[in-house]
Amino acid sequence: MDLAGVAGVAELAEAEALFDGEQHGVVVGRGGVGGVPRAPAADDDHRRLSKREIAVLTAMTDGLSNKQIARRLGISFHTVKFHVASILEKLEVDTRTEAVIKAAQLGLVML
Q1: Which residue, 95, 21, 107, is CA-closest to 60?
Q2: How far apart (Å, rounded) are the C-alpha atoms in residues 83 and 25?
């Protein structure tokens, strides 16, 4: 295999790792040029949403309170509060409403 082939395999492996929801969650942000996923920047690590955070975010989109989200997902109220704070930080917003709007703009949730 020539060097171009090796580079292509490495890029494919990197792209698969970036979008492997099982292990890495969802990266908040835009893709690269021509639909080809961009490599994660060093600061993307703090912007990944876990599957649980996506579930909480989806429940927030439904207008549920933390207590209602906790019941729906079978987790504690305090865990929901932790996830909400993490979501706000990762989406770089200050309110739940801003989080839902930004998540919809990024295609993470449907309104």
Answers
A1: 95
A2: 14
Please tell me the predicted confidence (pLDDT) of residue 44: 55
Sign, CA torsion 85/86/92/97? negative
Q: For residue 47, what pLDDT is reported?
A: 73
Question: Which stretches of the chain score pLDDT less than 50?
Answer: 1-10, 12-24, 30-42, 45
**Backbone phi, psi, residue 92, to 5°:** 55, 50
Domain ranges of the chain: 3-105
Residues 85 and 74: their CA atoms lie apart, in Å, by: 18
CATH of 3-105, one of 1.20.58.340, 3.30.420.10, 3.40.50.300, 1.10.10.10: 1.10.10.10
Of 46, 38, 37, nearest in space to 92 by CA: 46
How much is the pTM?
0.62
Cα gap 81→77, rounded to integer Å: 6
